[in-house]
Amino acid sequence: MLTKTCARTFAALALSTLTLGAATPGHADGLAVGGCVGVRGSFNCAVRWGQPTDPYVRLVPHPASEAEVAKSQERDREWMDRCHPVVVHDRYGIERYQYATRGCEFGAQGN
Known about the structure:
Elements: H1 4-23, E1 31-39, E2 42-50, H2 66-83, E3 86-89, E4 95-98
């Protein structure tokens, strides 16, 4: 439950954020998240501005040299030879991968 004081503080904080944004160039694709917590005279408010990102996306760097590309392709070929991935339909019609070797569903472990 927001108290009147907390609601006023959050409104002032949001207004100051908007005012600062009006004086500076606009930010495309940004996300503001904020809120207040506390009771009576003891509370805290915060607003965070940032790029909307998916926390489950991992950025993997590209190979830096031809040797790294060749090594990566060799690892992939060895994994395919060992695991023999095939797509099968389960009883609900959902496509799922099956592997010839146990543990292949976890990727390149064991190499």
